[in-house]
Design a protein that fits this description.
Strand order of the largest sheet: 4-3-5
Radius of gyration: 42 Å
Order of helices and strands: HEEHHEHHEEH
Distance between the termini: 138 Å
Number of helices: 6
Shape: elongated
Number of strands: 5
Largest sheet: 3 strands, mixed
Length: 212
């Protein structure tokens, strides 16, 4: 015989049943435990997606701003320099160079060269790398580099070869007395001759002050 009343036993059994759908407590509906976990996982997933998206947008913005800053600081090379010095102001023609030399009372430095000449390329690299030559060219000279010959025969007193560097003073006189160290090609220079070329640049600049 059951010791307890039947209704109590049924009530006890009912209370022992697991809550599967919803539980009532103090008049409020509570979400079952497994539904809570699912809701939490969904919220966490949404937060992770939003965080990842925000981080991606931040990285894109930083990358874009960095690229813009680099582009602003990087100066585009001048087409007239042809690799001889992008910070130098170059004239386009021999006639323009003569005019600028006369107007500014500065000597004109004319560099004859060719793109497919290995000796020209080697001298160009050395000239562009020389801080003293670059500074002199920027401040003391009207600069011109040519890949063709002019009609002025005074620019080729011992032949039309490259590389060849000539100086013209503001009176429009070609200074044939400013030469390199080679007797067979008096106006050519090699990379190891950069000290002599810089010295000749100083000489051409001083002649303007002493002779003119």
């Amino acid at each position: 015989m059951n010791k307890y009343p039947r209704y109590k036993t049924e009530q006890f059994r009912y209370l022992q049943r697991p809550v599967q759908l919803e539980t009532f407590r103090a008049g409020r509906t509570l979400v079952p435990e497994h539904n809570c976990k699912l809701l939490f996982d969904r919220q966490s997933g949404h937060k992770m997606v939003h965080s990842t998206l925000a981080l991606s947008l931040l990285l894109m913005a930083v990358t874009y701003n960095l690229a813009m800053a680099i582009n602003k600081e990087k100066r585009p090379p001048q087409t007239l320099s042809r690799g001889w010095g992008d910070d130098i102001t170059w004239v386009q023609t021999y006639e323009e160079g003569l005019y600028q030399a006369k107007q500014s009372n500065k000597p004109l430095m004319v560099i004859h060269h060719l793109e497919d000449c290995q000796y020209c390329q080697a001298l160009k690299k050395a000239f562009a790398a020389s801080e003293e030559a670059q500074e002199l060219a920027q401040k003391e000279f009207i600069m011109l580099n040519l890949m063709h010959e002019t009609t002025d025969k005074n620019l080729s007193p011992d032949g039309q070869y490259v590389p060849r560097i000539m100086f013209v003073d503001p009176t429009l006189t070609v200074r044939a007395d400013i030469t390199g160290r080679y007797s067979n090609r008096m106006y050519t220079y090699e990379p190891q001759d950069m000290p002599l070329l810089v010295e000749n640049m100083h000489k051409a600049s001083r002649l303007v002050q002493t002779e003119l």
